[in-house]
UniProtKB/TrEMBL annotation:
Keyword flag Repeat: no
Protein's organism: Lysobacter arenosi
Keyword DNA damage assigned: no
Pfam families from the UniProt entry: Asp_Arg_Hydrox (PF05118)
Assigned protein family: Belongs to the aspartyl/asparaginyl beta-hydroxylase family.
Coiled coil: none
Membrane-spanning residues: 283-301
All residue ranges annotated as the Aspartyl/asparaginy/proline hydroxylase domain in the record: 72-225
Entry keywords, A to Z: Dioxygenase, Membrane, Oxidoreductase, Transmembrane, Transmembrane helix
Name of the protein: Lipid A hydroxylase LpxO
Amino acid sequence: MVKWLFVFLFLASAVYVHFRGKVRHRLGRQLLDHSTFMAPVNVLMYAFSRVPTTAFIPEPGDHFPELEPLRANWQVIREEARRLRELQHIKAAEGYNDVGFNSFFRRGWKRFYLKWYDDAHPSAAELCPQTTALLRQIPSVKAAMFTELPPGGELRPHRDPFAGSLRLHLGLETPNDDACFIEVDGNRYSWRDGQWTMFDETFIHSARNDTQSNRIILFCDVERPMKYRWAQALNRFIARNLIAAGASPNMEGDKTGGINRLFKYFYVLRLKAKGLRERNKNLYYGLKYLAVVLVVAFIVWI
């Protein structure tokens, strides 16, 4: 009886996540999306969130006053980002060691990690001392990076797997043009220098830069505040033991998390799967759906 209760709760959570918001993936894609497997945890995050669970969070400073030093010092942060860009340190991963953002690199997106669920990367502490000093004063910022979206760059529609954080974007060097934008659950925001926005990254979102100018922002994952201590503890446990394993290096000497150390081996299988998809799309998708069915059958069997 308990087993079937868990199965029902998992399926109900997955259905809720799929239909949440105005924009959704095709059902076939959603079945295989990582957010489906995190659905029961994410539903708890939404249910006990102390901030709105809308696509965009209005007035981030009202909900997170501790973030104000970032906006107040945006020009200082911009200077360090500009220096990094001149040194060509804002870049794609040099190997298969950034599973969380690997697909983004193919369409122009670049990044330089400042921190990832820990203290600053050694490279960031050395090259961006003022920005990392500001971040150290704000424990609720769990991850931070500079991200670049060049002219013609884009991020295809996707949703992040874990609802334990909210995403903050602070414009540093942007086109200041409505043709450079992010769209979250069908709602569009165009970046501007010195201005910020916060959104729930578990809604489907995408981004484009259809201008002739570069776009650099400060990108932060901010811990979602919860109504109860047990919910906050659960959020932090998952972040510390799962999300932190996604750490990716900027350069030699930076930490690489366990998930990313394994990713290079997984990517070999992924390349073979892509080859199969090119040769026989029906067989490829048939095997993917069969794998999902087998996982569900195993859960029911145990």
